[in-house]
Amino acid sequence: MNRTMYKGLLATAIIVALTGCNSSDDNNDTDVSTFNLRIAHINDTHSSFDPTSLDFTAQVNSEDMSIRTSVGGYPRVATALKNARTMATDANKPFLALHGGDAFQGSLYFNVLKGAGNATLLREMNLDAMTIGNHEFDLGDGPLIEFANKVNFPLLAANLDTSADSQMSGVTNIKSYTIKEYGDVKVGIFGLVLEDMKSISSPGDDLVFKGEVVTAQATVDALNEMGVDKVVMVSHIGLDRDIRIAESVNGVDVIVGGHSHTLLGDFTNIGNGMGSSIASYAEMITNPNGTSKTCIVQAGEVAQAVGQADITFENGEVTVCQGNNTLLIDNDFKHKYDGENRELLTEADQSAAEAFVGEQDNIAITEEDVLLRSIIDIDYKPLIEEFEGKVIGQVFDANDPIDTGMLDHVRQPGVKRNGASLPITGSEAGAHVAASMVWKLNQHGYGIDMAITNTGGVRNDIKNDATGNLTAGYIIGSLLYFSNELAIVELKGSDITQLLEDTINYSLTTSSGSFPTFANIEFTFNGKAVAGEQIEDLHVCPNGVAAGGCTDIDPEMTYKISTNAYIAGGKDGYEIFDTKKLSPVIKSGFIDNESMIEYVEALTLAGQKLEELPTGLTFIAPTSFEEKLDNPVFKPEDNQ
């Protein structure tokens, strides 16, 4: 597949920026048999208002040099989209700017501003449409409704039925499709969201999510009946399901995707390999009728890249689709000249590296949009800095002579997450998160016996900053940024035993983040035992494992379990929370990251640091999982 991309200079906006592919000066309004459309697209931007970092390889003085630089952020995305639209206008080419969903979550900006910051910044990007991601529902319907009412582009979700929801049904900016007209040519754009949305997010109970394939075909047919034979689907269902749509539905010409965070394309030229093993950028998939084809694109994650595709239609069907993703970088290049410390490049190497980047079509030095940067810096950063700067305590891990200021996190015992493998005990960080749940709810008289939550909800290690302090900003922005509500579930002891066995096996075979982390219980998981007998010596420890006083769990006794509201609904392998609960789930109104902050502050007030807790787990891996374990163990000195 050709991926030719013109790179141009927009004097007042960017140094080198994403432009277009196979630009044409044809006036498409007068040619009804041939129609050329340009699409620029983003997805899974996750409130990444500021840049992140990128490592890439540049050829400098005929040698490969490893370089780290800043990449992306909303202001750079805004520049790239505006430049792409300008280039399309100059070429008299019809243009669409689309967002594949999941603007919410992912940074401290979202935790502080909810959807309001995204609404303000995305409004300035002149998007034509966006679909709804699963994270748009993380805080329920309210923030999504506010977002929909503030943005200046439609939110598309053809398979979302809002008719039974008294609030959502009145939101006029959430639509099944929209139609753009270019002279006599009409292009239909419809949205597709996850049919299993309720299993991975928190939409309202009265919302209905219909089947993806059936809805896609029905929507295409409806658009065709209206005389629209050029159809773009903007989806948030992931690359695998996008391919399924293309193989199962006739008449979707282009799919602009999201959810799987896939940076489609070939990045071997900068040392970063292929974006996907199952599809290239602008992959053409044949429809079930054997003749028409669907072009699939997706642009990675966290506002690092903008994708751009040129599509040629002949008599209503796609005959050519080509383009690529372009990573949007700064020129703050650094390299480890001494092998240890990153330093700014020498003047000669900087010039050579910039020249190399200028020759590539999938990475571009891009200036930030001045307006968006000023909004972020003036209106938002002071609020963030107020949170980020608040010291709440200190971490001290006496068992770890290497990183005494860090409690390591692993999703699965024995599989390195950041600093250590922790093959026997599991997550040190997760033990404190679970303990904070018990502490918070029992401060308010809930009588919680234990906490069981999922390691996927714990996003990082717990660690001090460069000044030796743990801050509230780190808890909210890095450790527990999903802001899950604490919930209470009642189960019999026998069902808790089954829940633990089920979720551990689900993690080892299906979803790594479903592995449980817990407080006030201890047990051995013996993966070599027969099914139904893998949980051994399960004890309940009313005051925590470290305090002792643990007793055998009573199979017939009712226990109150603290967890997060997400898995309390039976999601991510925790079906027993839903199917075996002895009373309705209680949602406490308390948020996990805020509770964690209060927990750390209480320890600090008592003169204590956040020290390593016994996790309560002894993990014996099943034979089938042993090949996935780190060998040798990473950081063995911290695997106490």
From TrEMBL:
<protein>
    <submittedName>
        <fullName>5'-nucleotidase C-terminal domain-containing protein</fullName>
    </submittedName>
</protein>
<dbReference type="GO" id="GO:0000166">
    <property type="term" value="F:nucleotide binding"/>
</dbReference>
<dbReference type="InterPro" id="IPR008334">
    <property type="entry name" value="5'-Nucleotdase_C"/>
</dbReference>
<dbReference type="InterPro" id="IPR004843">
    <property type="entry name" value="Calcineurin-like_PHP"/>
</dbReference>
<dbReference type="InterPro" id="IPR006179">
    <property type="entry name" value="5_nucleotidase/apyrase"/>
</dbReference>
<dbReference type="Pfam" id="PF00149">
    <property type="entry name" value="Metallophos"/>
</dbReference>
<dbReference type="Pfam" id="PF02872">
    <property type="entry name" value="5_nucleotid_C"/>
</dbReference>
<dbReference type="InterPro" id="IPR029052">
    <property type="entry name" value="Metallo-depent_PP-like"/>
</dbReference>
<feature type="domain" description="Calcineurin-like phosphoesterase">
    <location>
        <begin position="37"/>
        <end position="262"/>
    </location>
</feature>
<keyword id="KW-0547">Nucleotide-binding</keyword>
<keyword id="KW-0732">Signal</keyword>
<dbReference type="GO" id="GO:0030288">
    <property type="term" value="C:outer membrane-bounded periplasmic space"/>
</dbReference>
<comment type="similarity">
    <text>Belongs to the 5'-nucleotidase family.</text>
</comment>
<dbReference type="GO" id="GO:0008768">
    <property type="term" value="F:UDP-sugar diphosphatase activity"/>
</dbReference>
<dbReference type="GO" id="GO:0009166">
    <property type="term" value="P:nucleotide catabolic process"/>
</dbReference>
<feature type="domain" description="5'-Nucleotidase C-terminal">
    <location>
        <begin position="427"/>
        <end position="578"/>
    </location>
</feature>
<keyword id="KW-0378">Hydrolase</keyword>
<dbReference type="InterPro" id="IPR036907">
    <property type="entry name" value="5'-Nucleotdase_C_sf"/>
</dbReference>
<dbReference type="GO" id="GO:0008253">
    <property type="term" value="F:5'-nucleotidase activity"/>
</dbReference>
